[in-house]
From TrEMBL:
Name listed for the protein in its UniProt record: GNAT family N-acetyltransferase
Gene Ontology MF, one: acyltransferase activity, transferring groups other than amino-acyl groups
Keyword Transferase: yes
Keyword Secreted tagged: no
Amino acid sequence: MLKYRRVLELDNELYQFHLRQKGYYMLQEIIPTKEYLINDMVIPDGFDEVDHFIYKVYFKNEMVGLIDYQLGYRFSMIHDDKCLWIGLFLVDESYQRKGFGKEILNKVVKKYGDFYNRIQLACIRDNFKGLVFWKKMGFKEIATSSYCNLEVIIFEKKI
């Protein structure tokens, strides 16, 4: 059973978790600094911080994942009271393909499915593991865009 702990600021455990995700950050050709991660945790302009959530995910007291999402946000920075945007979804590379990603996503759907009718996210085009995961979870490609000089695919799932 997974446990969730809300994050309000970058701490050493979270920083070390990001440093371990070498494959993900190689796609962006960066090594995540504390400053980069703090800036990445900021909510989108014009959106309310009470609707922004970041959770560390634990299995047997070990941090195995992270989810960052914004309620009421839709692709292209549009307000949409029925959409949940996943800004970052990481499962530790040593815990992938063990069902944790599916369990984390199912928890979000269960928690918000009565209030929101869609989930959207952007996945880096070269993130082949991520692309396979999101498609397996029933997400459909709805657009392409760019983020920090990277091509991304926008996915959506009706819930």
